[in-house]
Design brief:
- It is a single chain.
- The chain has 242 residues and is an all-alpha fold.
- It has twelve helices and no strands.
- α3 runs antiparallel to α4, α6 packs antiparallel against α8 and α9 runs antiparallel to α10.
C-alpha cells in the first residue's frame, strides 16, 4: 500500500515537473524573447505576452528593453483585466521614470484602469444602474484625467480624457443622487437636503443636479419649511423653462 502511495506521489511530482517545463519561458537571448512577446501583444495573446515580458523583467531588470518591457506590461495587464497589477506597474514605472517622454500615456492608462475598476460586465450587459457602487475608482479616474489635462493639455490623449471627464462627472453626480434618495427614504430629511445642495453646487450641469431638486422638495415638505419649498419649486420651474 505504501509502495503504491509512493509511486503515485512520484508520478504526480513528475507530471508537475513536466507542466512546469511546458509553461516555462525558454532561456533565449532577450532580443528574441522580446520579439516573441511583441508578437503575442500584436495578436492579443495577453497571457503569453505577460509570461514572456515578466521573464524579461526578472532576468534583465536593467537591460536595453527595461523601459519598454514595463510599458508593454502595463498595457498587457490592462487588456488582460489584471487591474491591481496594472496600477502597481504604473506606480513602479512612474517612481523610476518621473520625467519619461510617455508620462502622459502613463497617466492616461492609470485613468483607464481606475475607470475599468468601476465597470462590470454583467452590469453593462443587463444595463443595470451602478450609482450605488463604491465611487472611489471613479474619483481616482477623474483625478487622473484631470491631472493629465493640466500637465499635458496638448497630449494626443487630451481629447479622449475630456470626454471621459464628462462621463465620470455624471457618474459621481449619480452616486450622490442615490445617496440623497437613500436619506430621503430613511426620513433623514436634513441629510437629504444637504446632499442635494452639494450635488447642485459641485455638478450643476448634470441631469442628477436637476433630479436632486425633486428630492430636496420632498424633504422640505416633510419638514414643513415654507421658504425652502418655495425656493426649490422656483428652481424646478426655472429648469422646466430652459
Amino acid at each position: 500500500m505504501k509502495r503504491q502511495y509512493l509511486l503515485g506521489l512520484i508520478t504526480l511530482l513528475l507530471l508537475a515537473g513536466c507542466a512546469d517545463n511546458k509553461d516555462a519561458v525558454p532561456d533565449i537571448p532577450p532580443s528574441d524573447l522580446y520579439t516573441q512577446a511583441h508578437q503575442e501583444l500584436q495578436s492579443g495573446g495577453w497571457t503569453e505576452a505577460i509570461k514572456k515580458l515578466e521573464a524579461l523583467d526578472s532576468r534583465y531588470p536593467f537591460g536595453p528593453y527595461s523601459d519598454q518591457v514595463q510599458l508593454d506590461l502595463i498595457y498587457a495587464y490592462y487588456k488582460n483585466g489584471d487591474y491591481p497589477l496594472t496600477l502597481a506597474t504604473i506606480e513602479r514605472f512612474s517612481r523610476l521614470n518621473p520625467t519619461h517622454e510617455r508620462s502622459d500615456w502613463i497617466m492616461y492608462m492609470r485613468g483607464l484602469t481606475h475607470m475599468a475598476q468601476d465597470s462590470n460586465f454583467m452590469h453593462s450587459l443587463f444595463n443595470m444602474n451602478r450609482s450605488d457602487r463604491d465611487p472611489e475608482p471613479v474619483k481616482a479616474a477623474f483625478s487622473d484625467f484631470k491631472r493629465l489635462l493640466e500637465r499635458y493639455p496638448n497630449s494626443q490623449y487630451a481629447a479622449d480624457s475630456r470626454i471621459r471627464l464628462v462621463s465620470l462627472k455624471n457618474r459621481l453626480a449619480e452616486y450622490d443622487l442615490a445617496s440623497a434618495d437613500f436619506y430621503l427614504r430613511r426620513e433623514a430629511w436634513i441629510a437629504a437636503i444637504n446632499r442635494c445642495q452639494e450635488i447642485q453646487k459641485t455638478y450643476p450641469d448634470t441631469k442628477a443636479a436637476h433630479e436632486s431638486l425633486k428630492i430636496q422638495l420632498k424633504a422640505y415638505k416633510a419638514l414643513n419649511l415654507e421658504d425652502g419649498i418655495k425656493q426649490t419649486q422656483a428652481l424646478i420651474d426655472l429648469n422646466k423653462e430652459k
